[in-house]
Amino acid sequence: MSPTDLAVQKQQSSAGKQRVVNDFSIQVATVNGSGSQTANLVLLRSLLLMGIPASGKNMFPSNIAGLPTWYTIRASKRGYISRKKEVDFLVAMNPETAKEDVLTLDPGAAVVYDEPLKLKELRDDLVFYPVPFDKLVGPVCQDAKLRRLVRNMIYDGVIAKLLGIDPALMEKALNKQLGKKAKAVALNSGALKAGWDYAEANLPKQDPFALEPMNETAGKILIEGNQAAAIGCMMAGVTVVAWYPITPSSSLCESLIGYMKKYRMDKKTGKATFAIVQAEDEIASLGMVIGASWAGARSMTATAGPGISLMSEFTGLAYYAETPAVIFDVQRVGPSTGLPTRTAQGDLLSTAFLSHGDTKHIMLLPCSVEESYEMAIEAFDIAEQFQTPVFVMMDLDLGMNNWMSAGFKYPTKPINRGKMLTPAKLKEIGQWGRYKDVDGDGIPYRTIPGDGMPSYFTRGSGHNAKAQYSERPDDYVDNMDRLARKFETARKVVPKPDTETVTGAKIGLIAYGTTHWAITESRDQLREETDVKTSYYRLRAYPFNESLNEFIDAHERIYIVEQNRDMQMRQLMKLELTPERCAKLRSVLHYSGLPIDARSVTNDVLSQEGFEVAKKTGRVVEAGLGGMTGGE
Amino acid sequence: MAGKLNRIGLEPVIYKGSKTTLCAGCGHNSISERIIDAFFEMGVDPNAVVKLSGIGCSSKSPAYFLGTSHGFNAVHGRMPSVGTGAMLANKKLIAIGISGDGDTGAIGIGQFVHLMRRNIPIVYIIEDNGCYGLTKGQFSPTADLGSKLKNGVVNDLPPIDTCALAIELGATFVARSFSGDKKQLLTILKAALAHRGTAMIDVISPCVTFNDHEGSTKSYAYVKDHDDPLEEVSFVPFFEDISVDYEPGTTQEVTMHDGSKLLLKKLEDGYDATDKIGAMKRLHEIARRGEYATGIIYIEPDREDFLEQLNVVDEPLATLPLDRVRPGPEALEEIMEGLR
What we know:
With 632 residues, chain A is α/β, with parallel strands linked by helices.
């Protein structure tokens, strides 16, 4: 199995010899449950230790062991961290998918593969590096049971050699990843070396991809969005958490448990300053959250689409009875069970109006791990300020993938508990009514059980300003109008959009959440490749800010880019915009379950703008299929 | 006007609620009256009480007692989770939840099951009339096999025995009473207030409008004739220094967690309310005869409640100050460093 075979020779001549430095993606295809995540994170950490901006995305099955999984690591000297559609460097470890994985590569890509898979016969326009993993793992790992896990670390060693990662740095990354488990570190370290040595002795460099040290990651952290949100919840002073396990939100509450146990045990008594309960379902989770916040605790739950559906009734109660609640929706692909381990922005419409009757809810839209942290803190303030449920709309891509980020800042503002009735306030306003609009902003004053202030009877049935049962038409209308007024007050308080208006741009892009990262890169592509200038309006919350109108007015065409089929955010906008403004709206939609990528956005915008996309970009997936006949 | 005062210096009137809107003669109203008596006699601070309910006739009743306490009329069948949340937020609260046989046995059976498992400190009352009153008399899951609706329809499904179910699920205080038995119900309610953890009381409470006719097994007449008390219940609260004399072997004395004493005078068959297996056996035997076993069916006075298991601080979580719920900058820095 000499690497200097015909396929490689041919590829060399066709692909050219231009080196590609710090700007490519590595995809590792394995079987889930094989321990590949450790190897992948060590690789990702190695890149960050080299100072190269990098991101990692896990595409995994809804399964514990035995099904295909892909992990993509992207190195980007320009700092792009969205998914890159094209795979440049493939590590093919999974017999099930290896053939298709290889066939879909662009010409010029490189493939490290498990030798018995005999992949190099498939294409003659790729670089192939066969590695006999089973032969190499034997001497490294005596314990046959562990071999399956250690085996994967060998590809890290091979990649380090081929791409130019300092083995000492990779060793450091390994130590970081495995922490204090000395035995595991030693075992995996041996595997790294075995891979490196094999590559050095047998695999002369044939591909153009290389990694070189940069200085762009100093002080940066590597963290999943769910973990970031958990830190935010702890800093927000959450005291009651009720949750039900569901992908992709479980790790939010699980990491919160870890942090709370470490940082929120009372120093004097050793007791918990919090209560975290795994409920019997999502309905009970939200019920507990509502009961707790009604009794004055800062409380939250985290779930995904199916849980949101189940929480519908309770959400209506919280809206109408006006109890705060913070609900994280780490969105996955629906409808129904959908694709539980794939990402989407598909719950916007159903969440905005969750429950029967006239309801509307505040949604926060974090795009990054940093915003997941910050908005988690803000969500509790807003929920208490407005005495209503607040949904933090994350997604699987944000919640479960590892993102490079600046370190989080310590909160500067104290906790805002909203309008709690105090003896002084009671004296000032004279007569208190739980649902009385004293200040004209739609937000009433509340009391909590045991606080010594006047009590009230909370109910989801019709009530008047004094919280008394009422079916009177005027009471109902007054109350509903006040709730609408409260929502309008929220419009001014929720996180403001991030706007970048470019002089001379006729096109405006609107996006939110993780779509932001594809937009950032796509705007550069549009400007650099086709000289198309774009302005950008990144939504950070619902209800929308008034400035949305100005942004639309300032541009001829508006593209709303989102990760769902039904243009959900656009539909929400249409409810508020004038027909003239609606007429300017167009959509770029991505809903395959994979995180949105810049190239797809660029192509779609250009095509709607009348460009001939295929010629302009030239990067079409099918190009790889030509290799099939060539290799046969 | 100055009537007798209780041990915290309050008059009985403080414990009353607004005027009932339930039907005249409804068993639920008698239960509300006993609740008022029990809270008064036990000297419970109404400011610390939370009244919870689901949906249905039963769930309206929290408006009719303890008018100065906070109340929460939640959604159908989901009161247990709301009550759990409230107690998590503030362990100093005293919670009483009122449910019905539909609210508990049908739509709310899931939450009921998990409430019983967790032993959250809450007095949980099922006002059990075997039918849906507020939607005009359909059968509920506690309706007995063969029981008849007013229009002659016969129930052909077996009933859920909420007491047997609660014992099976690990409940630590399980009782059954009858809204017409003032003395027994009041005593059980007082004992329930002294209990550590969930006190589950199924109170047979006839629906005078839809389920009080011949052929119904939940009518006043039927329940009166088929009430089979397991013991004669008396209760001595911890704050009353009364010693009760009884002949050895005639009475089971159960010391409750707060020091109160529950005295269960044995009737002819003898009964041990702390024997789980015996309790289940007796419940089934009596049900097979078409009768209702009433009294304290099962009690486990010393099991830790859920809040103790969670090891929460002594103060209410709801009102902990900022410096106790927001770790300092050094904590965040330590977390960040670990992620670099």
